[in-house]
Amino acid sequence: MSVRELVVLGTASQVPTRHRNHNGYLLRWDGEGILFDPGEGTQRQMLRAGVAAHDLNRICVTHFHGDHSLGLAGVIQRINLDRVPHPVTAHYPGSGQRFFDRLRYATAYRETVGITEAPVGADGPLARTAGYTLEARKLSHPVESYGYRLVEPDGRRMLPDRLAAHGIKGPDVGRIQREGTLDGVPLEDVSEVRRGQRFAFVMDTRLCAGVYALAEGCDLLVIESTFLDEDEELAVEHGHLTAGQAARVARDAGVRHLVLTHFSQRYGDPEEFERQARAAGYEGELTVARDLLRVPLPKRR
Questions:
Q1: How many other CB atoms are there within 10 angstroms of residue 50's CB atom?
Q2: SS3 for 120?
């Protein structure tokens, strides 16, 4: 059975707290696992969340600040220790190649698994599979940073009343799906477009074109909201978003489910992020992330 869900491993920003680990997010997309921004402690959080190294097919790093990448060393070594039987691809800003190299080879260990390095240097598609296209968009942060987006290809939804009207039933339903026509009846006459699901991951950034491009039409948007709105000047100075800014992006982009995360340790009341997001006009499903939370992708439209 296909599973599409976000497993939240950590939600702190620069400084972890008693209740929030550094960043880490696993997206389960059918049979694949994509790990985003493994900060310090990610390997232990994976254990607590029931995530194994064998679940990982890709690692996507937005940028090389420590709270988003220091866990790479342990995760990569665990992939090798557990002899993961499939290739693992790592995407990260190409300008940070030296940091990736240092983390990959931070200590001595036995390499048993091939990690494919796929650095990102520009906006656009990074990988295409049968289940999704992975894209990147540049963000606005003091160091080079990219956000990531998965787009599932559109499919088709069969319409029972139209199938019945053309006398198509049983094995013939599968046949017209495969072949595109049956006895002169085109697939388009008995089906409608089923929009593919969309997911985006937006971390440390100011408002910029990349943020809006990543969020557009998403079923699930994971986005940083490091600061509350009263600290917007501080957010802009340090290259971050506020809760209200993130929510307005989601509102304007037609996001169905918004997940706020990456919270500054200066705030003690997580409910205030939700209040400010609602005050900004976002009316869809809203989650203020906490460590070890699981968030399913919304059901198809």
A1: 10
A2: strand
Q: Which pLDDT band holds residue 157 (cuts at 50, 70, 90)? A: confident
Local structure of residue 117 (DSSP, 8 states): E
State the average pLDDT over residues 56-75: 98
96 burial (CB, 10 Å; 0-12 / 13-18 / 19+) is buried
Which residues, including other chains, have CB under 8 Å from residue 99's CB and lie 6 or more apart? 64, 69
Pure H helices in 202-260: 209-215, 232-238, 243-253
Distance from chain centroid for Cα 245? 19
Residue 67: active-site member: yes
| Closest alpha carbon to 239 in 68, 22, 9, 41 | 68
Is 284 in contact with 258 (CB distance < 8 Å)?
A: yes
- Residues 188, 155: contact at Cβ < 8 Å? no
For residues 240 and 238, what is the distance between their CA atoms, to the nearest angstrom? 6
How confident is the model over 165-214, as pLDDT tens digits? 899 999 989 999 998 998 898 899 888 889 999 999 999 999 999 999 99
Query: Going by DSSP bridges, is the β-strand pair 220-224/257-261 parallel, antiparallel, or unpaired?
Result: parallel
CA-to-CA separations, 67 to 47, 80, 252, in angstroms, rounded: 19, 23, 29
Point out the catalytic residue in the list 37, 67, 204, 291: 67
- Token look-up 């049979």 returns 31
* Burial class of residue 62 (count of CB atoms within 10 Å of its CB; 0-12, 13-18, 19+): buried
Contact assessment for residue 284 and residue 255, using Cβ atoms and an 8 Å cutoff: yes
Separation in Å, CA 126 to CA 5, 39, 90, 118, 222: 21, 22, 11, 8, 19
